[in-house]
Amino acid sequence: MKIFVGNIAESCTAETLRERFGDFGKVGEVAVVTERETGKPRGFAFVTMPNDIEGRAAVLGMHGREIDGRAVNVNEARERRA
Fold first, then answer.
1. DSSP single-letter state for residue 50
2. Do residues 12 and 30 lie in contact, with contact meaning Cβ atoms separated by under 8 Å?
3. Which pLDDT belongs to residue 81?
4. What are phi and psi of 64, to 5 degrees?
5. With contact defined as beta carbons under 8 Å apart, do 79 and 63 qualify?
6. What is the pLDDT of residues 5-47, one digit of tens each?
């Protein structure tokens, strides 16, 4: 399950997200999205969890939780439109 994590602080790292989401199960890939030109974080990330049940638990458990001083928005990621 691919999970969208929005409203993350600039200081939030992939390792921080891996630790927090790891409380709910196994975490696969974590990608903090950055701007191409500057390399600065864009304020959102994607976390992949191989088990859908653990992924859904993470979405429910992490939505609204504070990470690095900001309440994050957590949802199941939608497929990108062409």
1. S
2. no
3. 74
4. 85, -5
5. no
6. 999 999 999 999 999 999 999 999 999 999 999 989 999 999 9
